[in-house]
Design goal:
It is a single chain. By secondary structure, the protein is an all-alpha fold. The protein contains five helices and no strands. The protein starts with 10 loop residues before the first helix and ends in an 11-residue tail after the last helix.
């Protein structure tokens, strides 16, 4: 014969089990919270967009920088263009002066006629040698002096153009032509002034 006995757990054991269950729940919740915090930490932070005022200031600064760059580039181009035009004009002027030194100028003609008139006035009553010297030699030397001045100016202007760097080829060619003409004119003028090529006529 078997006797059944109802065993009721002691109150201490029941409380202990309940406490363990609460701890397990809290531990599970704590783990879930930690996982959520980790996920939030892994997510990238949203980029902070600048305010509209800051964007406007940046745009204005960029526009000012662009305007300054354009202004500097335009000024440099204008200076280069003006300098190039001046060099071309100087080259043409040097060539013209050199040609004038070889062919003679209106100024030289006027000076020669003036010296001839003065010589005629001074030579009245003088000897033949004095008349030749006053009428012919002075006019001849005055013409040579004027032509020599034009030749010297042509040579100086041409050299100034040639010594400057970065000049177009045609400008340098014209300046070189002016320098050659000026040098030849200067040589001929010196020969005329010092009677190297032709001697003065002599009285019989």
């Amino acid at each position: 014969m078997t006797i059944k006995t109802d065993e009721t757990p002691a109150p201490d054991e029941t409380a202990e089990k309940a406490g363990n269950a609460d701890k397990a729940d809290k531990a599970g919740k704590g783990g879930k919270d930690a996982e959520g915090a980790a996920v939030e930490a892994v997510e990238p932070a949203e980029a902070v967009e600048p305010a509209e005022g800051q964007l406007d200031e940046r745009d204005e600064l960029d526009e000012l920088d662009d305007d300054e760059d354009d202004t500097e580039a335009g000024s440099a181009a204008a200076e280069a263009s003006g300098d190039g035009v001046g060099a071309a004009a100087a080259a043409v002027v040097s060539a013209g002066l050199g040609l004038a030194a070889l062919t003679g100028t209106w100024v030289g003609k006027v000076v020669s006629e003036r010296e001839t008139l003065i010589g005629q006035i001074k030579a009245q009553g003088g000897t033949a040698a004095q008349q030749i010297n006053e009428i012919y030699a002075d006019a001849w030397h005055s013409t040579a002096l004027v032509n020599g001045v034009f030749a010297f100016l042509a040579l100086v202007v041409a050299v100034l153009v040639l010594v400057r760097p970065q000049r177009p080829g045609w400008v340098r060619a014209v300046a070189l032509g002016g320098a050659v003409l000026g040098a030849i004119g200067l040589f001929l003028s010196a020969g005329m002034y010092f009677d190297l090529f032709l001697n003065l006529p002599t009285a019989p």
